[in-house]
Amino acid sequence: MNRTPVLSRRTLLRGMGALMALPLLDVMLPRTARAATPAPRRFVAFYTPCGIHMPKWTPGGEGADYSLTPTLASLAPVKGDVLVLSGLDNLPGRPDGDGHHAAATAAFLSCVKARKTEGTNIRTGISMDQVLANAVGKHTRYPSLELGIDQGRGIGNCDSGYACPYANNIAWAGPSTPVPKETKPRAAFERLFADFDPNVTQEELAKRKAYGLSIIDAVRDDAKSLQGKLGTTDKRKLDEYFTGVRELELRVNAMDGAGPACGTAVTPVDSEDVREKTKAMLDLIVLAFQCDLTRTCTFMLGNARSQRVYSFLGLSGEHHAYSHHQRAQANYDALAKIDKWEVEQYAYLLQRMKGVLEEGGTLLDHSAVYFSSEIADGNMHEHKNLPILLAGRAGGAIAPGRHVRYPGQPLANLYIALLNMFGVPTTTFGDDGTGSLPGLGV
Which domain of life, per UniProt (predicted)? Predict the structure, then answer.
């Protein structure tokens, strides 16, 4: 029996100097596997800085019988797809003396105590996402994808004697090797969806530039040729994918006032609206998964000790300053607004993922989407009872729609459980992992 796919999963559309990756189509699978092969599992870690105002975060009730709090209200459309996890601690995030934000951010996915230094001799541990990428990354073009909103300084002291890499990164390929995040939507878009053919002629490049063609326009002829090889389902997938890529391309272009670019990507200006930038980055995650370019992603909505001013929420102070609330009601109110907006961005990502249909369910069904901050209460710098959400079903390994309490359990145990779900056998992780966190599945 012929087991050779009609179309390779590595197929790229070509035209006018552009190369464009394709989503995972049925025609790319061996005939015997098209009905039996499950969709791949994906993982996202969504980081928010400066902690959470916990009184407006933690739901009342447990199990499926719980009510969303004001901070979590935007999750209502996907409540059945989300686990709220209370009680988990990340004690390796505690610093030596001060420096709670940077030390805890370094331990956010590593659960390893960071060496206090503002020099180059940084040391923490490999992050959970990179352990996963080492195991499953060989199946995709990019082993992992790291995105964020703020770049930050790469050297020096960023938090009471803790070096800037601790504050600016959650992905660590090794104890001394942070994996830098991409903070420019245009650069991330071009990297993922609009590579340039190294064999292209200058005439072709000039033509594309002169006509201001988008990546979709550039590969249109090749796409039309492909249509004849596709069935009804694959044609729908391709149309949805093209629509998503084009809409995102238009938004990215609008951020810096540029038209479709050719050659070197145009860097968005620093004053761009964080709302549009965040939305673009989250859409990039969805499209990267839809195209099976990667199965592991991290996203930082800000760096540790974020000093962002959320003027569009009617606030004039910095996020980090509000987090040191000193029990002032005005600061509580400001934090509640920021926290609510952050969860709304997470809810947007979940709804986008839920809208992508795959074999046997949705993209969200086949994913685990983790949300948290480096600490709980920002004023007390608490490393216990962290604010944690876990959405998706990870291909059936997670039973969402519940509020589950794990008083005093180490966060590392959640990462052990997630790694096991993705086929990475381990019983230890970080400094204090003791075994797989129970009760996440059916």
Answer: Bacteria
Task: Tell me the pLDDT tens digit for each residue of 347-371.
Answer: 999 999 999 999 899 999 999 999 9
Residues with Cβ within 8 Å of 20's Cβ and at least 6 positions away in sequence, in order, are: 12, 13, 14, 193, 194, 195, 215, 216, 218, 219, 245
pLDDT at residue 239, as a whole number:
80
264 CB-contact burial (10 Å; exposed 0-12 / middle 13-18 / buried 19+): exposed
Contact 275, 348 (CB under 8 A): no
Q: If we measure between CA atoms, which residue out of 61, 95, 97, 100 comes closest to residue 79?
A: 61
With beta carbons less than 8 A apart as the criterion, state whether 114 and 162 touch.
Answer: yes
| Backbone φ, ψ for residue 401 (5° rounding) | 85, 25
Whole-model pTM?
Answer: 0.85
Q: What is the pLDDT of residues 41-60, one digit of tens each?
A: 999 999 999 999 999 999 98
Please identify, in words, the CATH class of the domain defined by 37-422: alpha beta
Query: Nearest to residue 219, comparing CAs of 201, 198, 197?
Result: 197
- The structural domains of the chain, with segments of one domain joined by +, span 37-422
- The Cα–Cα gap between 116 and 120 comes to 11
Where is mean pLDDT largest: 70-84, 177-191, 244-258? Answer: 70-84
What ranges make up the beta strands (E) of 22-122? Answer: 42-48, 82-86
Nearest alpha carbon to residue 266 among 172, 190, 380: 190
Q: Residue 81 is encoded by which pair of tokens?
A: 């797809």
List, for residues 234-243, the tens digit of each pLDDT value: 887 778 777 7
